[in-house]
Amino acid sequence: MATMFNVGLTNGGSNTFRVPFSDFGSKISLSASGSSSLTVPAGDFDTALFGFTPGASVWVGVNDAPVVTTPSWTSCKDDLSPVIRPVSAGDVIYFLAVDASEIKVSFYKMDI
């Protein structure tokens, strides 16, 4: 069963996040210019929570590999060091490290 990512409200109406350690996650260490991919495991997952080495730039794409950035504007679907993104079981998450980085991905079922 997927670990629940709980979102709630405080007495003042502000959002609160109670994020437990996930039972499903993976981590990797990438060198600068390194790349890798990770398949979202089978299960009741709909959310990926990302962690990166502070200050490191890592491009992340889902079902579409990021490409090296150029000095010209380029159309893309990938994101730079995202925090949280929706995913589905079987999606492939691609990583392209600009800087050396430790990367952690935790999978959750959003509780909303």
Proportion of residues in extended strands:
over 45%
Structural domain count: 1
Q: Output the CATH topology.
A: Immunoglobulin-like
Biggest sheet details: 6 strands, mixed
Helix content percent band: under 10%
Structural class computed from helices and strand pairing: mainly beta
Q: What is the β-strand count?
A: 10
User: What's the SSE pattern?
Assistant: EEEEEEEEEE
Q: Can you walk me through this structure?
A:
- The protein is an all-beta fold and 112 residues long.
- Helices cover 0% and strands 48% of the residues.
- The chain has strands at 4-9, 15-18, 25-30, 35-39, 47-52, 58-62, 79-80, 84-86, 92-97, 101-111.
- The strands form two sheets. Strands 1, 2, 3, 5, 8 and 10 form a six-stranded mixed sheet that branches.
- It is globular and about 40 Å long.
Name the descriptors.
Immunoglobulin-like, 48% strand, 112 residues, 4-stranded antiparallel sheet, 10 strands, mainly beta, 6-stranded mixed sheet
Secondary structure elements and pairings:
Blueprint: E1 4-9, E2 15-18, E3 25-30, E4 35-39, E5 47-52, E6 58-62, E7 79-80, E8 84-86, E9 92-97, E10 101-111
Short description:
0% of the residues lie in helices and 48% in strands.
